[in-house]
Structure formats: C-alpha cells, structure tokens
Amino acid sequence: MSSLLRGGMGRINVNSTSPEHKLKEFGIELPEAPPPLGSYVPVVKTGNLLFVSGMLPLVEGRLLRTGRVGEHLTVDEAREDARRAVINALSVVRSHAGSLNAVARCVKITGYVASSPDFTDQPKVLNAASDLLHEIFGEAGKHARAAIGVSALPLDAPVEIEFIFEVG
Fold first, then answer.
1. How many domains does the chain have?
2. How far is Cα 52 from Cα 54, in angstroms, rounded to an integer?
3. Rounded Cα distance, 165 and 47, in Å
4. Which of 57, 59, 67, 82 has its CA 20 to 30 A from that of 30?
5. Parent domain of 49
6. Cα–Cα distance, 41 to 44 (Å, whole number)
C-alpha cells in the first residue's frame, strides 16, 4: 500500500499513539489535498463536524483505474481504491485542521461502488476503508457506514467515499 501513498507535507509533531504517528508507522505520506473537480468545496465545518466531499481514488490527479467492480475490476482492486480514497480524505482533513491529531473520531462514511448489475460485495470493498481508518485512529476510527452499489461514478471511478469527522 505504501507505494501508492507518496507525496507529503511538512513535519508534524506526533506521539506514539497519534494518528500522525500511525501514518509514519505505516509508511503513509499524505499527498497535497486534491482540488475539487466541480462547483463544490472539499470540506465544510459546522460545529465540531467536518463534512468531507466524496473522494475518488486519485493519485496525482489521475484515477488508479476505471470501471465497474465485478465487470472490469476485482474486489481487491476496488479495496485498494477505497484505501486511496481514505488517504485523499485525510489529506483534506489535515489541510483544513492542521493535523490529523485534531480528529476526535470518524463519525460516518458513505461509500459508493460502481458495480456490475449482479455484484453484491460492496461491503467487502468498503471494509478496506473502514479498516484503514481503524488502524490510523484506533477506536476513534470506528464509524457508522453505508455501502451503496451504483451503475456509474464521476470519471468512471470504481469507488467514491464521503466522510464525516468530529474534530476537538
């Protein structure tokens, strides 16, 4: 996974249990926050909540792959895309909050999986995103979730995930 996750920002103080430390431990370097691809903002803060717009599995502005899961892509490929969407979301959160250490918890994710008509393993795809959030944030990474199959996503992406984080 770490081969996909290059790029990064400046140094951030971390302790051994902080999300920032976990990123370093896993060899994950967050890229610059991806710019919006349309007429919206990447994140909105209201109260203590950050609503992160749907994130695609972009690397340097390009999708890792395109197509529908169960037709053009395997579950494992889509799981890799789901992890990349998390990385992109975390880069947006860091750019807005200054550090992932400001995150009190991940509240909810909603994942959309471009699926062939007979594909029903959307939860398996989204488990990769959920597992990564748990690995980085510990118990605070456990969240409510919806995993939704759709016929198509923007740019022919296989996965798009939106997030709600609570910040302290």
1. 1
2. 7
3. 11
4. 67
5. 43-167
6. 7
